Amino acid sequence: MTPKEACLNLLGLSRRARKQIAGEGLALAAIRNQSAKLVFIASDAGPTTVKKFHDKAQSYDVPVIDTFTKAELNAATGNPRTVIAITDRGFARKMVAIMTN
């Protein structure tokens, strides 16, 4: 299993565990109230969305993973979303560890 596949599997698991927030508005609010521990941004998202979330995540010190497309995020979670915030520290730590190896 590749690191991308492992991370997408964890993304699906976090959805079933209700440890993620999907959608731009809700994810932005989660970053602001510091409940987001990791943010996924689709690699094919619009440039305005990408800049807004990268800037906001950087200012609140939230890691960002932007290597997956909208289709990959949709397949993993069952939600057609561009931005997903992970709210569980354990899931976030494991996903970051997988993607940085």
TrEMBL record:
UniProt xrefs under InterPro entries: Ribosomal_eL30-like_sf, Ribosomal_eL8/eL30/eS12/Gad45
Keyword Ribonucleoprotein: yes
Pfam family, one: Ribosomal_L7Ae
Boundaries of every Ribosomal protein eL8/eL30/eS12/Gadd45 domain copy: 7-93
GO annotation, cellular component aspect: ribosome
Keywords: Ribonucleoprotein, Ribosomal protein
Protein name as it appears in the record: L7Ae/L30e/S12e/Gadd45 family ribosomal protein
